[in-house]
Amino acid sequence: MKKSKLFGTLLAVGAAGILLAACGSNSAQSSSSSKSSEATSSMTKTINTARFTGSFQGDNKMKVAGHVSIKGDKLTLTDFSTSAGPDLHVYLAKGTDPKSGVDLAPISLTKKTQTFSLKGTNVKKYSDVLIFCNKAHALFGHATYNADANMATTTDTAASLTGSFKGQNGKQVSGDVTVNGNEIDLSNFKTVAGPDLHIYLSKDGSVDNGAINLGKISLTDANQKIKLPAGTNIKDFKQVLIHCDEAHVTFGAADVK
Question: From which residue to which does the signal peptide run (predicted)?
Answer without folding.
Answer: 1-21
